[in-house]
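Dear U.,

For the methods section draft, I wanted the exact inputs and outputs in one place so we can describe them consistently. I've listed the two proteins in the order they'll appear in the manuscript figures. Please don't edit the token lines directly; just add comments below if something needs changing.

First protein:
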Amino acid sequence: MIAAAVLAVALAVAGEPVVPKSDEAFFGRVVADAPAELTRTDVTVGRCLHAETLATRRLSYAIRCPPGRYDVRVAFAGGRTLVARRAWLLPSSAGQAIPEQRRDARLAARLTALGRAYPGWAALWVHDLRTGRTAGWNSDASFPAASIVKLGVLVAALDRFGPRPERSAAWPDIKAMATWSANDSTNRLVARLGGPRVIQAVLHRIGATASTYTGDYRLGTSVAADAPRPLPILTYRRTTAHDAGRMLYAIHAAALGQPDAARRTGLSRHEARVGLALLLSAARTGDNAGLLGPVSPAARKEGWTTTVRHTAAIVYRPRGPVIVVVLTFRPDEVSLSASRALGRRVVGVVRSV
């Protein structure tokens, strides 16, 4: 009797699936380990229900629900339930991360036309993670970064406060910085991480070698291979469209467990997937609504001041993910409507190729 009671309690104790864990993004599949004595399970993702008789102890379910944030429950006959809360479901096609391989001349020509027509300074970058094709215009020109380089703070914070950053005391600040771009939270994180030099080192390690988190930017410190229209001014935080794409690629590839990305970011697969889930959950109101229009799902970071409007995003299309970066600048005051019109045109071009 005592042994049976202990078993019943043990079966009822909730843990987590193997995939996903709470607060992370996952790629179209739930994975869980079943107790040996159980023979049936129900998997619930939001209102989607999958029931199955167990054939093996390691279960792997393809989930065909709409992308979005869900509580995921794996309920075994016998009373045990595994729960992952606030997990971000992406389609299985999102699980691709082909590095930069070749330039798409046709797409580059179309981006060039859009960039040259913008009434100010613009930079564009596209990286198709399904094929490795890339294209850009003015993508190596240095722009005021605004909040785009907070991606470096995000990587540093997820690394420092792991292995479960969502359970750390720093989590409220990490979440506010990633989803609302909160400056006060960012400043507290940077102080806890050891100051701007730590963030600078992270930016360079993940490939954003033309970006600066603090200090004066000096011409000639990086090779600008694609900068037909460089900006007339320099500020202490800088980035390029190409660098923004590299930052997003590093996080996405680390979320898939790619060794080079894991080494560069210092992130475990779970830590990187938490980062993706935060960027997928970014608020879509006010200034944080961004430049690309109603593209969803998209893991994105916005940046804005009176003179700049930026969006850097991984857009998870049905056929595979693509990184889209749009940076815009005017020295007097940037036009939000003009910047958003450019962003939507870039998305339209990307959808057509």
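Second protein (the one for the lower panel):
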Amino acid sequence: MVNRMRATRSHRDNRRSHHGLTVVRLSKCGNCGALHQSHRLCLNCGSYNGRKIINLAELAAKRAKKIETAKAG
């Protein structure tokens, strides 16, 4: 089967104009100076907007313990 009304180049390109990828914006963490995504938690120190949100060392210890128990059982 063949399309009766083929989309013009202009119509096709206007539709595809929204498909472009955007570059991720990086900000410098005010606490540790590492780069992280804007409006996101810093994965290096666990702070957001100048406040400590999560303790990454404690979280890493929990993950390690969970992995060890999964291997043992």
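Candidate sentences for the figure legend, describing the second protein: The first strand starts at residue 26 and ends at 28. The beta strands are 26-28, 35-37, 47-48, 51-52.

Thanks,
Y.
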